Amino acid sequence: MGKDSDLATDTLGNSILIVETMKEISSAVAHAPGLGPVLGASLGLLKAVERVKGAEDRSRRLAGRAVEFMQYIEQRVLRDDGTIDDDVVDYLSALTYTIEQICVAPFLSPPSAA
Predict the structure, then answer these.
(1) Which class is domain 3-106?
(2) Residue ranges per structural domain of the chain
(3) N or C: which end of the chain has fewer CB within 10 A?
């Protein structure tokens, strides 16, 4: 494996660590309903991406976007004194469902032994 592959593995591993930490922190933030499920679903997505051996560029982009989104939500919650609008809560619920559906998509399933 080359240097780029090692860097991608490190990036994905670090992304998983960041989201795991954010998920733990979110349980202490009572004014952010819906954040925990999104973080949990995103964590599942990142771990599914980690299992995928093909489509590495798309997987890395997807993982990067998930982390960027989590950082955006965190900044928004901190900026708004820990409160979140109802529309954001609805959006987080829809996003959680979408991420969960991506996690069970065939292209993220590990290859079956034939």
Answers:
(1) mainly alpha
(2) 3-106
(3) C
